[in-house]
Specification:
about 50% strand; globular; Neuraminidase
């Protein structure tokens, strides 16, 4: 049984959490909410975000972005079409996800460690998650219903687990514990390797994207597959980040692959 507990700096130890494992169940077919072939907006990012690796809704008209080499969180304003703030949290690394939770900003490193701070960069904290095995973690999301961060593993090397098993762990913000939340069954697609995830603010479903295999899947919190959709390379060269505005508008970011990084907007049907 996985039982990993850690605390952020300046926090007192919390109670241990139990392992919670759920596997993908039979696919449930429902109408898909977004037209992936017809994004409503495209936002070009500046040169420092050519390799944008994470995206999060921050404030109305503003988004948090991270790139995978430098420990800086950027705030991009879609009206001004430029970076309006930068928050450095120190050093270098392979940073793959970013998420705003209230006033706190969390950043995920590919080994599963978390960095967090409250702007403007006060009390920067580093949390070692100690996930089992050697993991390549590429997606960071947040479920407000459970008050947990979600960490999507691209590949796992834990003994006894198939490399093809794509695991989503969660970090409980209340008791500071890591849970093994669910496993994305490899039957989804052998090439599916999560590169980003987000929780839909209205339906509560998990949206997980994969730059390998160019696909998006939608799951309920129990891991049942609601939908599988291809992502066109013509629209998204290398999809790495996904997030939602509170009204359900979806955004997916892409690395530039030698050109400029960018992200696309997809309207929620009730907003069309």
């Amino acid at each position: 049984m996985l039982l990993t507990v850690f605390m952020l700096a300046n926090c007192t130890p919390q109670k241990k959490a139990n392992e919670q494992v759920q596997t993908t169940e039979k696919q449930v077919v429902e109408p898909f909410l977004y037209d992936l072939d017809q994004p409503s907006e495209r936002f070009e990012l500046p040169p420092q975000l050519e390799e944008v690796s994470g995206l999060s809704y921050y404030k109305p008209g503003q988004f948090l972005c991270i790139q995978d080499e430098i420990a800086v969180a950027y705030v991009y304003d879609v009206q001004k079409k430029k970076i309006v703030e930068e928050f450095s949290f120190g050093g270098y690394g392979d940073f793959e996800g970013i998420e705003a939770v209230g006033d706190e900003i969390y950043v995920l490193r590919s080994d599963g460690d978390l960095f967090s701070f409250t702007p403007p960069n006060k009390d920067i904290r580093h949390a070692k998650t100690d996930l089992p095995g050697k993991n390549d973690v590429e997606g960071l999301g947040y479920n407000p219903r459970t008050k947990r961060l979600l960490l999507a593993v691209k590949e796992s090397s834990k003994k006894g687990e198939r490399v093809s098993d794509k695991i989503i762990y969660s970090f409980d913000l209340l008791n500071r514990a890591v849970w093994k939340e669910l496993v994305i069954d490899p039957a989804v697609s052998p090439d599916f390797m999560p590169s980003g995830l987000a929780v839909h603010p209205i339906t509560g479903r998990y949206y997980v994207i994969s730059s390998a295999g160019d696909a998006l899947i939608v799951m309920d919190p129990k891991g049942r597959i609601i939908e599988q959709r291809p992502l066109s390379k013509k629209s998204l060269r290398q999809p790495e980040g996904i997030c939602f505005a509170p009204d359900g508008t979806m955004y997916i970011s892409s690395e530039g692959k030698g050109k400029g990084g960018y992200f696309l907007q997809y309207n929620y049907p009730q907003n069309n």
